């Protein structure tokens, strides 16, 4: 009898598990994942290959309708909207993803320290979080942009400052709940170092909560970046972002409504898909019977 290689068995098991996992996702979440994946993949391909044309080249007259040279029409300078749309999506996603990644790292560290160590560390972390949380999101973003100056850096720091408070609070609560479990208490009694407990005991058990909060933070990040760029405090020309495209399209909405409608629809659809995915992650990692009713 021929023995099946162990690697092949593991690969088949992994494929079977992934298929079961995909089928277990509800249809709405699956649709959201597919739509968001299509947007991201098409944007990556269009940005890297330049198949849609140059973002600065003039391809026709001002405010022309869709054509072979400009499938979505032209803007006020005669440039094709399609490559600028992909540039805007790429800019918005990159700024939002970088900001959320930074906020997630900071929030996880602060939340675990506050939830596990407690005492003065908890008070110090939570007071800083309360101060940031007291500012309305858009006001805080505008304040950061006014201090630093408009641009990508200001948008990134603004998103980090807005998303840290809520993520830190949730991570702190999750850490405190996990810290009271027997395996963490036994590790502490056994003399396991605090950093090792953080990495080997706490982080794997709060990763689901972090994933859920990061998905919601990403939708907030996209909205904040769009709002800042729309108000003139975010990404600046000659770059493009969804918020900046919406701002420019609003000025000519009666002459060329597609300049406003197309980036607006992409922004709304992206945020909607991310929120649906976040709801799916919450249902998977936080069953309803275990959620707090408060």
Tell me what the structure shows.
The chain has 294 residues and is an all-alpha fold. The chain has a single domain, classed as MetI-like fold (Orthogonal Bundle). Helices cover 74% and strands 0% of the residues. The protein has helices at 6-24, 27-49, 81-117, 119-133, 137-148, 152-179, 182-189, 194-231, 242-251, 258-285. Helix 4 crosses helix 6 (152-179) and helix 8 runs antiparallel to helix 10 (258-285). The chain starts with 5 loop residues before the first helix and ends in a 9-residue tail after the last helix. Keywords: Cell membrane, Membrane, Transmembrane, Transmembrane helix, Transport.
Let me know the average pLDDT: 85
CATH superfamily: MetI-like
Span between N and C termini?
60 Å
Strand content: under 5%
Task: Give unreliable regions as ranges.
Answer: 287-294
> What sequence of helices (H) and strands (E) makes up the elements?
HHHHHHHHHH
- Give the class-level CATH name: Mainly Alpha
Radius of gyration: 23 Å
| Secondary-structure class | mainly alpha
Biggest sheet record: none
Q: Judging from the principal axes of the Cα atoms, what is the shape?
A: elongated
Please work out how many helical segments DSSP would assign: 10
CATH architecture: Orthogonal Bundle
CATH topology: MetI-like fold
Domains (count): 1
Helical content (DSSP H or I, runs of 4+) = over 70%
Strand segment tally = 0
């Amino acid at each position: 009898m021929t023995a099946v290689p162990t690697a092949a068995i593991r690969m088949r098991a992994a494929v079977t598990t992934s298929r079961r996992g995909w089928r277990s996702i509800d249809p709405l979440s699956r649709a959201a994942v597919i739509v968001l994946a299509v947007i991201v993949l098409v944007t990556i391909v269009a940005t890297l290959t330049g198949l849609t044309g140059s973002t600065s080249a003039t391809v026709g007259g001002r405010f022309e309708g869709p054509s072979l040279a400009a499938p979505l029409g032209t803007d006020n300078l005669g440039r094709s909207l399609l490559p600028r749309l992909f540039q805007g999506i790429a800019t918005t996603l990159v700024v939002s993803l970088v900001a959320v990644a930074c906020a997630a790292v900071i929030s996880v560290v602060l939340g675990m320290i506050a939830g596990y160590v407690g005492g003065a560390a908890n008070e110090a972390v939570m007071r800083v979080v309360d101060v940031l949380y007291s500012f309305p999101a858009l006001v805080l973003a505008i304040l950061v942009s006014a201090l630093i100056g408009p641009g990508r850096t200001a948008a990134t720091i603004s998103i980090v400052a807005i998303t840290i408070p809520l993520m830190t609070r949730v991570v702190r609560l999750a850490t405190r709940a996990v810290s009271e479990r027997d395996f963490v208490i036994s590790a502490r009694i056994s003399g396991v170092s605090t950093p090792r407990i953080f990495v080997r005991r706490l982080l794997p058990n709060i990763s689901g909560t972090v994933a859920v909060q990061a998905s919601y933070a990403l939708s907030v990040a996209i909205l904040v970046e769009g709002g800042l760029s729309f108000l003139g405090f975010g990404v600046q020309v000659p770059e493009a972002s969804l918020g900046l495209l919406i701002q420019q399209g609003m000025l000519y909405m009666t002459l060329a409504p597609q300049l406003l409608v197309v980036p607006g629809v992409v922004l709304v659809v992206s945020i909607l898909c991310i929120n649906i995915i976040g709801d799916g992650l919450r249902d998977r990692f936080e069953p309803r019977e275990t959620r707090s009713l408060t």
